Amino acid sequence: MITAERLREIAFWSAELTEEEIERTRRGITEKAFAKGAYICHKGDKLDSWTGVISGLVRLGTVSQKGKTVTLAGMRSGGWFGEGSVLKKEPRQYDLVALRDVKLAMMGSATFFWLFENSVGFNRFLVKQFNERIGQFIALVEFDRSLDATGRVARNIAWLCNPVLVPKADSHLDITQEEIGLISGVSRQAVNGALKALEQKKFLRVGHGGITILDLEALSRYED
DNA sequence: GCATTAACAGCCG
DNA sequence: CGGCTGTTAATGC
Hints:
Jelly Rolls; Arc Repressor Mutant, subunit A; 2 domains; DNA-binding
């Protein structure tokens, strides 16, 4: 259980809830920590919680039959995910790995369903989030085959900073080039080259152990 | 050939 | 000093 104060800090969508809903919600959330490299859950596990990233970085991915690692998305602090699996009451389709030390907020499915049945504000948020994700998946299908390494890096960085999914997103991202590689499905060296190209175009600035987004719009539209 | 992996020296914090 | 970055050399597709 967490305080109402804490809920405000870690869950931006709680701004859309009534006092009663906030009270109910804070009682249904617990915090949990995972060390760098730890699996939060494996594909096929039943993880019965809607999950928010409080701090750190999570990789959402899977392993193909041939043993190759496939990354579907990265989640940074402020992002909430897993509503699909909770709603459908089905096992997770992906592995969840902590790319660095991570703190998560876990909302039990009973609370999630109560909000789903009773809260107008919560549903408004859910629809917005689903809508945003659909847009991203359409873009993924449309462009993935044709994008080079720079394009994939640009898209994945933009995805991490999506203002609808992570409203508080600061323009500075604490992330190493290796982590960008893990999330984008590109080697660290290729990330290095991609970042330089993107910096040249003034879309972002490269720093030590982090980057600063200068033009999120351009990154999300980058095509080649 | 190209891109990814491996290895390593330099650098920032 | 430890972790991150930027090269270069080796290796695999």
